[in-house]
Write a sequence for this structure.
């Protein structure tokens, strides 16, 4: 049984300007021990989707259909209190580094310990000790549990966040653009840390980013998202070697490679559609170099083909 | 000199306060000795003043000496604790003011304590539940309370509750010649202080609700609140440890600025209710043209506000870890 | 000319937006009400408000001849209330104008030039902000003498620092924006930048501050007059309360005291609501949130 199964998930935002179909009939699975990368341009709905997994969708947004099955239970149907207990201990999340995710007036030790104290019945001393060990786990001296967030650099704050997120031994870790906005050296260190932790803790992760190179370093499986839909899901290796969907192909082509021949960088013409009024048929068709008539009318089905899942009329 | 953390901060603030107090002293001198309507000069044009009296006053006030000498003797007298002589009461201004300090202090402490606690509580609730009907109600009520001047409210309360309904006394701090002592006396004072406190508190609660509410709303937009939820913390813990602590920081800062308005409230309410404090002294001084007394009260109020601001700044510097600990990275 | 027409159109849109806000409607109505009363005072009053001396008219409660009764000198209260609106609005708007003028100048210069100039200006501003407002106003009014212009001046002295701070921080954030850089690149002079590019973007904020200052000015005039520092040649709500308070019969003549208090509160409340509406409307995203 898969750890997490998303089935036909639909999340719409009901605004006065119209209904925004942020996530439209998305399905994928995450198995135990697996690392799934979720790529897409800004605004394609990836953050909305993982927010839904944490049940953070607030009005005017609403989950209008589908299932999110975690460890065999559809968490859309469970109550608020049950979900609260699941957060942090079952599913945990790491946010983007540029954000203000650490409370500036609370010591980092307390910010780690309070999560532990909430989910486990241990004493305060034990919780603080665990907090110190969490910091060591991410490569920070345990003595710094008494330090405040402003005393850390950006990269170290991300480590603290990872320490917080893994403190209660969650069964699934979601990382939303965790290294975006950090300089490449720090990125490298953090990614190495994450791989290290994955091995040590056997932690399945969902890794969201718009940066293909980062995904290549950390994930076994990749799902490509466009305009609220997943267009391709494949193993990292096969996606990079041989992308099937035109959008995936364009993405891979737009990334320079150090090895191999020098070629002209090709960006994808046009811009992502406004999700309030997506194009008919296949949502990528206005920008697709291989567009056919059927693409304008019918939405392609997400089908299995040759060891991967693709939603494209051409491929299928 | 780059002293780290709190020590550097504290020294800077104290130096700032000293400079400001000195500037206030200069301003005081300027207003009462150099402006066109300056009362000392006015006395010269008063035909009722005889030539000898004028000569006496000239010597006394040193008006025949150059301006900077006048300023120096003004400073000298100030440091000796001499704030001049009250025309009206014929004793040292400092004495007159000192007599009134306890009554004003009583009023201020009681009123501010109630207002700050209630204001912050209601403001936090309104901010936490922003967008709901409760929030709209609290917001509108606070805006209204904020718009009613203390003296206007005082007069209405006096009319209704003191005169028409005779629940509370018409003024003063205690029933004259009642001979009450001990607990009975304090009960009497409590009965007298009720309406004045409400008059001051109204505006203050309005102000604090608006402040706390908007600060709370800003804080709730922050990412660490989402993070706290992602950890699975209880809502009450999030409100207490994450939201409130951060929301209160700007409120503490503004408290200092608001003290000037507290002074206004004191003057208004003490006047209306004949409460024997420094505020009432201002009114009496104006009505009786007792300029030394007026000058003295201004100095006392201004310096008190500066000192109170200093204390609040220091408290804030101690509470906010970004200042207390300073940057080590 | 084109830009003038554009600015006028923007102003009109701004007012239309204000009218979609509940407090905006209330505030503008209050303003309209008092403006009408002030303008048409000669037609609205019943008796010459300064007419005194008729002994049997002293301290009469409201009746058909004296709609709100009379005071201790036999003067008609209704007419006094009507005429007082002129003083309050006059002082309110003139003080607001002066405050905004000085405050904006300081804020624009300090924010735009930065450096030493900004430091000096801000030190002065902070100093004035620290002074307790009412005592300072009282002391200045007492020394300068009781007349309308002094009151306007005194109110402005006390209100300009807050306006200067607000405007300066807006200028600072505008300075960062690209269009300032762009204009500099094409060689625009300092003053054309300040007045041509930055100021138009600051005007809505100036308007918001002006509304606030009007409330402060109305309050200040009321309290200063109540304390006996008002202009004795004019009649204002504060003066009415002063006379009532001094007369010794204040608590017995509620008709004397309630109308001016109601007038003061309604005017201040109206402008406070208007100020809230203005600041809401100016926040980015107001139109979207309302679905406009």
């Amino acid at each position: 049984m898969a750890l997490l199964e998303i089935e036909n998930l639909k999340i719409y935002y009901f605004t006065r300007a119209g209904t925004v179909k942020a996530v439209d009939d998305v399905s994928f699975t995450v198995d135990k021990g697996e690392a799934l990368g979720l790529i897409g341009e800004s605004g394609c709905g990836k953050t909305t989707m993982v927010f839904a997994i944490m049940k953070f969708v607030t009005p005017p947004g609403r989950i209008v259909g589908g299932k999110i099955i975690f460890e065999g239970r559809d968490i859309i149907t469970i109550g608020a209190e049950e979900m609260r207990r699941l957060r942090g201990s079952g599913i945990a999340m790491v946010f983007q580094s540029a954000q203000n995710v650490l409370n500036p007036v609370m010591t980092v030790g307390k910010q780690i310990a309070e999560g532990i104290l909430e989910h486990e019945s241990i004493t305060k001393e034990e919780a603080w000790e665990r907090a110190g060990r969490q910091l060591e786990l991410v490569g920070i001296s345990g003595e710094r549990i008494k330090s405040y967030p402003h005393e850390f650099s950006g990269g170290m704050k991300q480590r603290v966040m990872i320490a917080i997120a893994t403190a209660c031994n969650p069964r699934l870790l979601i990382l939303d653009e965790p290294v975006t906005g950090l300089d490449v050296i720090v990125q490298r260190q953090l990614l190495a840390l994450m791989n290290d932790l994955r091995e040590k803790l056997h932690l399945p992760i969902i890794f969201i980013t718009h940066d293909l190179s980062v995904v290549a370093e950390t994930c076994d499986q990749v799902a490509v998202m466009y305009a609220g839909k997943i267009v391709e899901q494949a193993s990292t290796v096969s996606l990079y070697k041989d992308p099937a969907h035109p959008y995936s192909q364009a993405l891979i082509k737009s990334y320079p490679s150090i090895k191999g021949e020098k070629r002209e960088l090709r960006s994808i013409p046009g811009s992502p559609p406004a999700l309030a009024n997506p194009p008919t048929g296949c949502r990528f068709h206005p920008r697709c170099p291989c567009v056919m008539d059927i693409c304008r009318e019918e939405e392609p089905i997400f089908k299995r083909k040759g060891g991967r899942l693709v939603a494209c009329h051409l491929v299928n | 000199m780059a002293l780290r953390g709190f020590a550097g901060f504290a020294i800077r603030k104290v130096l700032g306060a000293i400079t400001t107090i000195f500037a206030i002293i200069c301003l005081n001198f300027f207003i009462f000795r150099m402006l066109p309507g300056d009362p000392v000069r006015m006395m010269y044009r008063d035909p009722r003043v005889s030539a000898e009296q004028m000569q006496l006053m000239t010597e006394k006030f040193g008006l025949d000496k150059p301006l900077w000498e006048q300023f120096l003797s003004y400073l000298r007298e100030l440091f000796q604790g001499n704030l001049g002589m009250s025309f009206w009461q014929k004793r040292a201004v400092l004495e007159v003011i000192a007599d009134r300090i306890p009554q004003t202090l009583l009023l201020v402490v009681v009123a501010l304590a109630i207002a700050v606690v209630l204001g912050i509580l209601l403001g936090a609730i309104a901010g936490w539940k922003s967008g709901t009907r409760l929030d709209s109600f609290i917001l509108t009520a606070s805006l209204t309370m904020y718009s009613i001047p203390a003296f206007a409210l005082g007069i209405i309360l006096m009319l209704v509750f003191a005169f028409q309904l005779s629940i509370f006394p018409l003024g003063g701090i205690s029933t004259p010649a009642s001979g009450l002592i001990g607990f009975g006396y304090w009960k009497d004072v409590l009965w007298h202080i009720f309406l004045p406190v409400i008059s001051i508190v109204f505006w203050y609660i309005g102000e604090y609700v608006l402040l706390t509410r908007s600060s709370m709303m800003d804080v709730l937009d922050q990412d660490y609140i989402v993070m706290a939820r992602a950890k699975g913390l209880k809502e009450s813990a999030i409100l207490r440890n994450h939201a409130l602590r951060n929301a209160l920081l700007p409120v503490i800062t503004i408290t200092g600025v608001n003290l000037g308005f507290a002074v206004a409230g004191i003057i208004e309410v003490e006047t209306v209710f004949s409460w024997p404090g420094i505020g009432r002294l201002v009114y009496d001084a104006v009505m009786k043209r007792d300029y030394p007394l007026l000058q003295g009260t201004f100095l006392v109020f201004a310096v008190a506000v500066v000192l109170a601001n200093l204390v609040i700044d220091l408290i804030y510097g101690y509470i906010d870890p970004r200042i207390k600990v300073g940057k080590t990275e | 000319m084109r830009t003038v027409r554009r600015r006028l159109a923007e102003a009109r849109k701004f007012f239309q937006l204000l009218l979609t806000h509940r407090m905006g409607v209330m505030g503008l109505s209050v303003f309209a009400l008092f403006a009408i009363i002030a303008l048409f005072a000669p037609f609205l009053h019943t008796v010459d408000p300064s007419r005194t001396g008729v002994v049997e008219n002293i301290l009469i409660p409201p009746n058909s001849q004296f709609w709100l009764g009379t005071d201790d000198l036999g003067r008609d209260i209704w007419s006094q209330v009507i005429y007082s609106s002129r003083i309050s609005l006059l002082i309110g708007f003139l003080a607001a104008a002066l405050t905004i003028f000085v405050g904006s100048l300081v804020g624009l210069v300090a924010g735009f030039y930065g450096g030493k100039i900004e430091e000096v200006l801000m030190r002065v501003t902070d100093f004035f902000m620290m002074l307790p407002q009412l005592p300072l106003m009282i002391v200045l009014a007492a020394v300068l003498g009781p007349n309308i212009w002094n009151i306007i001046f005194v109110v402005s002295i006390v209100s300009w620092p807050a306006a200067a701070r607000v405007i300066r921080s807006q200028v600072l954030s505008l300075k960062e924006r690209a269009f300032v850089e762009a204009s500099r690149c094409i060689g625009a002079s300092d003053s054309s930048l300040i007045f041509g590019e930055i100021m138009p973007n600051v005007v809505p904020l100036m308007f918001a501050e002006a509304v606030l200052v009007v409330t402060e000015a109305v309050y200040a005039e009321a309290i200063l007059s109540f304390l006996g520092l008002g202009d004795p040649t004019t009649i204002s709500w504060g003066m009415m309360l002063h006379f009532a308070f001094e007369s010794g019969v204040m608590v017995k003549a509620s008709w004397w005291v309630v109308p001016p208090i109601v007038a003061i509160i309604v005017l201040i409340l109206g402008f406070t609501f208007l100020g809230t509406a203005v600041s809401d409307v100016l926040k980015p995203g107001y139109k979207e949130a309302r679905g406009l």
Observations:
- Chain C is about 75% helix and 0% strand.
- The first helix of chain C runs from residue 2 to 20.
- Chain C has a mean pLDDT of 85.
- Chain C touches chain A through three residues (CB under 8 Å).
